[in-house]
Amino acid sequence: MKHVPPRPGPPRGRQGAAFLVAQVGAHAAAKFAERLADFDLTPPQAGILRALSASPGISQQELGRLLGIFPSRLVLLLDELDELGLIERRDDPDDRRVYQVFVTDKGRQSLEAIGRIARAHQDALCAALDEDERQTLASLLSRIAEEQGLTPGVHPGFAKMGRPPAGPHSKRPRKT
């Protein structure tokens, strides 16, 4: 009798928590990006607006450190937000070499829309959970994020923006 290998398909059995967090996280990020696209915004732009609303007048350098973003990439994102009229840069009165960054009135309106989008996104993503389960999930994920050293309220994807990919196949200088 001829042996027939199993047909390819999804893995069977229970999935590990790390895989499920990554799977749901990737799905959630993609869906949130789709929702923001309806307002001509990207997730990085929304994240920067959120950070600026929490720290009005923060310097570009401080914002870059907070987000862990490569400085040249941050400048490009701030330029985009400035061109859209969502932020403004002002000279720091104490140091002319430094720009302070503020959300404009139009930017605050965009933040209100982002808040509505985020609430609808959370409701859709967590539709299978009741309110107590949502709070439990948020609490457990917060504990994991803290233990992993993640900055509260900052997406770790900022740290990769504008940097070459790391890994065994990335272009890095070889040691000689």
UniProtKB/TrEMBL annotation:
Name this protein carries in UniProt: Transcriptional regulator, MarR family
Entry's Gene Ontology BP terms: response to stress
SMART domains: HTH_MARR (SM00347)
PROSITE patterns according to UniProt: HTH_MARR_2
InterPro entries hit by this protein: HTH_MarR-typ (IPR000835), MarR/SlyA-like (IPR039422), WH-like_DNA-bd_sf (IPR036388), WH_DNA-bd_sf (IPR036390)
One Pfam family from the record: MarR_2
An annotated Gene Ontology molecular function: DNA-binding transcription factor activity
Residue span(s) of domain HTH marR-type: 14-146
Region span, Disordered: 148-176
